[in-house]
C-alpha cells in the first residue's frame, strides 16, 4: 500500500474526529495535520523544510492527504508542538488494533536513550553503558516486538516509576522487565491487570534477594525489546529527534514513528504475515 494511502487509512475521522466547522478561514484542522506529520515520518523526511519541498514536488500526495494548499514550514513546526496528545491517542488506538489481531501473551518493558547533547531541555541520565545526555523513550512491546505503549521523558528520569502507566490498560499473560523495575508498586501494578510479573532481581536492593521462578522467560524474551529499541532508533526515527528543539516536538516525532511502525504491521498482518522481519518495512 502506498504511504499516503496508508496514512489516510489509519488517520481518518474515525480515529481523530474533525472539529465542527467555524466561520472564517477553516485552516487545515487536526486530521490533515496528523496525516502530514505521520506521512513525513513514514517517508523519513527529517525536518519541516524537507516536508514542504516533498509536498510541493508531489502535488498528488498533498491532494491525497487532503490538502488544498501546501502549508508553510512554520505551520508544520507548530503542528508538531500542538498535536502531541492527538498523536499519542492515535498511537494507542492503532496499538489496540494490534492487540485485537494478536492477543498479547508477553509484554516486555524497557527504556532506551535518545542522545542529544545540545538541546536545552536535555538532561544527564544513566544506562547500563554509562552516562548520556538527552531524553528517554520508555516503551512496552508485545511478543512480536511491536510497541503497545510508549512515552518520552528527560534523560534523568528513573525507569521504574513509569511501568504502572505503561501497563495499566493492557491485557497480557506475562510482563517482563529488568532489575530497574524491581519494586513492590510495579509487582502490584502488573498483578492488577491479571498478568504474571517477571522482573529481574535488583542487586542494589538491600536485604534477602528472592529468586523469580520464571526468570528464564525474561532471559529468553528480553531480546524483543532490545530489538525494538534498535529498530525504532536506527531505522524508523533515524535520529530525527536531533533536528528540532524541545521535548514536545521530539516526543511528537517519536509518536509519529511508532504509529508508522504499527500501521505497517497492521497492514501486513491483514495479509497474514506475523514475522517482525516481514511486517516492518523498516526491517533490514
Cα shape: globular
Q: Give the DSSP E fraction (strand runs of 2 or more residues).
A: 15-25%
Q: Provide the gyration radius in Å.
A: 20 Å
Helix content range: 40-55%
Assembly state:
single chain
Helix count?
Answer: 12
Overall pLDDT confidence:
87
Order of helices and strands: HHHHHHEEEEHEHEHHHH
Low-pLDDT residue intervals, each spanning 5 or more residues:
none
Distance between the termini: 19 Å
Q: What does the largest sheet look like?
A: 6 strands, mixed
Strand segment tally = 6
Structural class call reads: alpha/beta
Task: Lay out the secondary structure.
Blueprint: H1 3-10, H2 29-42, H3 48-57, H4 59-64, H5 73-82, H6 84-101, E1 106-115, E2 123-127, E3 130-141, E4 147-154, H7 163-167, E5 174-177, H8 184-192, E6 196-199, H9 215-221, H10 223-237, H11 247-270, H12 276-279
Parallel strand pairs: 1-5, 5-6
Antiparallel strand pairs: 1-3, 2-3, 3-4
Describe this protein's structure.
The structure is a single chain. The protein contains twelve helices and six strands. It is an alpha/beta fold. Helix 2 packs across helix 11 and helix 3 crosses helix 5.
Report a brief summary of the structure:
The chain has 284 residues and is an alpha/beta fold. Helices cover 46% and strands 15% of the residues. The protein has helices at residues 3-10, 29-42, 48-57, 59-64, 73-82, 84-101, 163-167, 184-192, 215-221, 223-237, 247-270, 276-279, and strands spanning 106-115, 123-127, 130-141, 147-154, 174-177, 196-199.
List keywords for this structure.
12 helices; 15% strand; alpha/beta; 284 residues
Amino acid at each position: 500500500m502506498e504511504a499516503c494511502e496508508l496514512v489516510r487509512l489509519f488517520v481518518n475521522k474515525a480515529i481523530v474526529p474533525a472539529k465542527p466547522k467555524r466561520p472564517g478561514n477553516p485552516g487545515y484542522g487536526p486530521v490533515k495535520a496528523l496525516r502530514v506529520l505521520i506521512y513525513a515520518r513514514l517517508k523519513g523526511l527529517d525536518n519541516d523544510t524537507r516536508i514542504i519541498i516533498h509536498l510541493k514536488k508531489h502535488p498528488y500526495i498533498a491532494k491525497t492527504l487532503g490538502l488544498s494548499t501546501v502549508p508553510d514550514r512554520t505551520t508544520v513546526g507548530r503542528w508538531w508542538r500542538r498535536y502531541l496528545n492527538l498523536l499519542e491517542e492515535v498511537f494507542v488506538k492503532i496499538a489496540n488494533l494490534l492487540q485485537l489481531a494478536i492477543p498479547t501473551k508477553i509484554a516486555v518493558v524497557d527504556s532506551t536513550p535518545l542522545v542529544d547533547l545540545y538541546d536545552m531541555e536535555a538532561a544527564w541520565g544513566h544506562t547500563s553503558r554509562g552516562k548520556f545526555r538527552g531524553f528517554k523513550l520508555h516503551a512496552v512491546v508485545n511478543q512480536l516486538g511491536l510497541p503497545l505503549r510508549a512515552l518520552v521523558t528527560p534523560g534523568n528520569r528513573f525507569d521504574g516509576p513509569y511501568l504502572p502507566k505503561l501497563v495499566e490498560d493492557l491485557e497480557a499473560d506475562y510482563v517482563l522487565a529488568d532489575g530497574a523495575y524491581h519494586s513492590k508498586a510495579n509487582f502490584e501494578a502488573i498483578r492488577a491487570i491479571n498478568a504474571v510479573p517477571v522482573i529481574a532481581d535488583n542487586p542494589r536492593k538491600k536485604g534477602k534477594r528472592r529468586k523469580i521462578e520464571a526468570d528464564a522467560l525474561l532471559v529468553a524474551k528480553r531480546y524483543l525489546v532490545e530489538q525494538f529499541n534498535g529498530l525504532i532508533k536506527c531505522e524508523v526515527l533515524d535520529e530525527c529527534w536531533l533536528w528540532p528543539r524541545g521535548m514536545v516536538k521530539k516526543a511528537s516525532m517519536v509518536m509519529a514513528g511508532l504509529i508508522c511502525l504499527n500501521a505497517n504491521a497492521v497492514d501486513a498482518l491483514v495479509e497474514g504475515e506475523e514475522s517482525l522481519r516481514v511486517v516492518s518495512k523498516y526491517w533490514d
